[in-house]
Amino acid sequence: KKHVLQTVCALEAVVLRSFGPDGGQVLFIRDTAEAMLSRSGSRILTALRLEHPLARMVVECVWKHSTVTGDGSKTFVLLLASLLRMIHTTVCKDPTVSHTCNSRKAAEAALARRLADELLAFVLEDLDDLITVGVVPYGCCVSWEDFTAKTQSPVHTNNHHVQKLLASFFHTRLGYTHCDFISNLACELFASWKFKNDTPALSLQFVNDNFPALHTPVSGFPIDCSRLIEGQIIHRDFATPCPQTENQPVKAVIFTGYLESELLRAGEVLEVGCGEQVMEENSSMKQSIVQFSAWAERSLEWVIADLQSLGVSVLLFAVKQSPAVLALATQAEMCVVECISEDELSLFAQLSGSMPVSDFWMIQPEHVASLAFCRPVLLGAHRYVHVAFHDLEEKVMVKPCSLVICAPGEGQTDQYACAFRDAIRMLLTAWEPLGMTAHTASKRTCSNASPFQQRVLEPGCVIPAGGTFELLLHHTLRQHSRSRSVSDNTNMSLPAVSQLLAKALLCVPQRIYSYKHKTNPVQNCSTKECPLQDSKLSMHYCGQAHMSSNFFLIQYDLLFRQQFTNTFQSNDHTITHFCTMLPLKHR
Amino acid sequence: MARVVKKAPSVCTDLPLGNTDICTKLHLLRQLLRSCFGPTGRLKQIHNNIGGYVVTTSTSSVLLPAISSSQPFVNMLKTSILNHVSRFSDCGLFAAILCLTLIDQANRAALKRNVAIKVNKHLLGLCTSYLQREDCGCKVKLDFSSSQNMITLARSIISSKPACVLTEPETLHISKLTVQAFLLTIPCDMPGIVSLGKTVTVSVEGYSVLDSAVFPGLLLNITDTFCISKADHLHSTPLIVVVFSVSLAGDLSELGDGIIQVHQGADTDSQILNQLLEVGKQVVKDEVKLFVCQKVIHPVLQQYLKSNGIIVVERLGVTLMEPLIQLTGAQPVASLHTTIPAKAYGKVRDLSIRQFGSQTMLHLHSPGESVVCTMVLCHRNETMLSELKVVCQKTEHVLRLTLREPSALLGGGCTETHLAAYVRHESKNEVAQTASVLGCSQMEYLLGMEGFCRSLESVATALEHNGGNSLIDLTHAHHWTLPADVVKDQMADNFGLCGCGLVGSSPSKKWTYLNTQYTELSPALLPRDNVMQPCVLDSFAAKLNALQVAVETANLALDVTYIIQDVN
Questions:
Q1: What pLDDT, in 10s, does the model give residues B427-463?
Q2: Which CATH number fits the domain B218-252+268-369, given the four candidates 3.40.50.1000, 3.50.7.10, 3.40.630.30, 3.40.190.10?
Q3: Would you tell me which of A494, B270, B399, B567 could form a disulfide with B182, CB atoms 3.0–4.6 Å apart?
Q4: Has residue A373 been placed in a domain?
Q5: How do beta strands B51-57 and B359-365 pair?
Q6: What does the pLDDT look like over B500-541, one tens digit per residue?
Q7: What's B17-138+411-467+525-565's CATH class?
Q8: Please, are residues B107 and B497 in contact by the beta-carbon 8 Å criterion?
Q9: How many A/B residue pairs have CB atoms within 8 Å?
Q10: What angle do CA B459, B463, B464 make, to 5 degrees?
Q11: Which of A14, A50, A323 lies closest to B334 in CB terms?
Q12: Nearest neighbour of B549 by CB, restricted to A18, A222, A263
């Protein structure tokens, strides 16, 4: 039992350094001597090379949790540690255990196991309703329209929720100094990628899917130089001298393969005779090697001429081309970009509405994309190709832009890119339709049977950050346990479990305010038996601690339930594991 | 067979800045970099245990990659600075010293991590907005109508690299050359987007630095002068040039993965050679006078071309292809089977032979206005020459940066002291508001501010290596140095000029030692009709970015609370 607790506490100690608004960065050096900076709990934990099987399992759970939600991994570990401590102390104090002296350890283990089972049952059954009743009323809803509204009227006071939500997210992920700047940038990015006729989730999903192609890391500049650039950046340089002309529109074609036909495929045999004699014998198979390659070159010229007749001036290739292609394209005044990654080509095809060419003998007008411009752009050490699409705003009502992330070092640009991706994921879960939520937690027995919850909890619900959620839930749990113990005295364990959970929850706000010594809302609440009105007061306290403006997400329904089911699965599992180990020791 | 090796657990360090080992290492690094800073900086010799040649340098871009540390913290700082240097080519040591001093000062003041970060960030904002203001006291507008300021800027960069071992006239000569080369690469009358040309550097060992020169056009290394010596008549009309980008050695081009079956009696080699000679015939018919190939040319073809009075240059290499194409206007030819189109030919106005030591060069002049030039750098030995080459390339880059932002900052430590004085003055006025905005106490804010200003000033003092003292004057807040054997009271007689040369000493001036408490002052602007010209200038863009990168890196370093090191 202690073993489990020790392991989780060790993990907690690692995570704690970067927890909360005052947390710091963790510098991680890979075995390849690459540096990685992070404040993301799941990245830090997965970076540790852990040996202990239990610790590995916990990390696995954290990782699974954060791939879905993009947030909350540090809280996960803190809560797990706190719960385990609570169970441990309860078990140690329990009078029934100390009486049975003969197998004290076995009894302890059994009691712990029983507590964990009950906790799990309680969480699965009652927690959702408790959250809906006790926490959700204090939250507020953020709608997707806030993004666009913000860009239209920046002074409108009501619409800063998304920006605040992002700011508080980036605060915990990147630190205080740049959170406002980066959250504004993120809002701008999302606003310009908003498809007018689609749901927010689809737009966000689009940005999420195409994020590798949509951002460019640039090292050597201060972070304030990060910006949005109109159009798309193709992360390759021109292979031929780049275009100097300013004529519009520029026509481009995407090729997925080689422009030059592969002359001899594997398995084919070229018979080479000696030039002149062969011609006399008029055998088409036996020509000189020179004639053969002349034929190959001519076929390439035909393709280029074909392209010229369509007015194409930019060729985008997925693979590297032969020098002959480059030279001929240069002579035809076309510019060539080679080795473009699949993601970027597919994004380009989507945005330009053109089809990639796979067979170069069949180039049709629908393969030709029309661009506003295509020019080189120098970002940091690299020169890239910058393209813009001119009629997109009317067609799909979207303003394509890409994100340039500047930072002094590569470790930091990585960190910022990761934070962006997690922010998208976090927003996606925040607006996830609730049907999905209920579906994810398939273990729940009463989810579909509770129309109450369906009515109240809307997607996009947020509550103030700074431990408010935990404090509110704490009170609700205590009230709940009190009312239960009054109403029926038959089942004593349920209030005990909810008390335990309530106490464990307090560790999160305690950690958040551990740096501030002035007012400690936790102490205030836990000493007094405060009703819900008082918890409003505690929110106020949080506000004094510079946090009220920051809104923290509460798609918490999903987050929290997952946290708990995971926690308890792991808890349960570990204890089972422990119990099976125990007899072995005693043998 | 693959062996399964058990992975070692990671090494963790909690609160790295509290760790004495790390602090010692950072201190050591700071001492090392400080000793290299400025024109009188001490040189460092880099060599490794297993031989290899010795590098003598004081440049951050050469020095920093050579410092390999097991300490991740040092490596993190190193990459930040190197990234800055690769973008801006200047002010690397400035950034590194400032960053390390900021960390040290924050550590020494025992400020809370978050407070130090917030204060640094705030003061950085103060500095950058001041530097970008029109009336900034340490900024000089660059005037492109006279080359004076540009030569000064180039000279400041070149003279701050003592490993080049240049005398005063040599420094001036090289500065003038770099400015000349820079001006040659700017196209004069091109509408639309201006694209800059290229400077090709050729290094020649064993000659005096004063023999270095810049030539418009391109110099190509050639092996034999035999065919050109009789070609004196080539000066008259524009000469036709053809440039091949494929190999003309007679090898088979890549055909694919299939099998080639050669029949008895078929001689592929001679068939291909015949084809090459066909190309040769066409070239001769089209009256080409210069035949250049990026790769190898078959000796028979070479012989054929030479016998027809064509100058042949082979194995040009890919780096010279771009300037050559730019100069001649030729399009590289890659096909052997089609006739070369007329527009693929380029033109050269003039051909001549230039001899530099053992190297014979073919000098190509552009037919029209040229944006390609060649810089021949000479120096006494290899080490100095390689350093000089690096320095000239950096200088050219810095000069190019001025095109985007035509201003420069005062050098010689004057910008640093001036900024420090400005920051002290500005922040003293509004301590209360700023402290409440940043969420710290006024005391903490003042401590953080003091650390920031001290760090800036300490960069200025790092310029002095001969035991002299650094001072600041109390009117313009410029930086002055005093030789070791002179005391402060005799100052008026001993000082000539301040660090940047813009302010002269006068009996009415007051000075104080740097790193002592001095009464806060608002740095006075220099009068508009100041006759003095600055003699040391720093690149504005590079220094501004260096300042930002240094503070951000210091903040990042202060923010790291845990290090996990995978030691596998």
A1: 888 888 999 888 888 999 999 999 999 999 999 999 9
A2: 3.50.7.10
A3: B399
A4: yes
A5: unpaired
A6: 888 887 777 788 888 777 777 777 777 766 777 888 999 999
A7: mainly alpha
A8: no
A9: 231
A10: 125
A11: A323
A12: A222
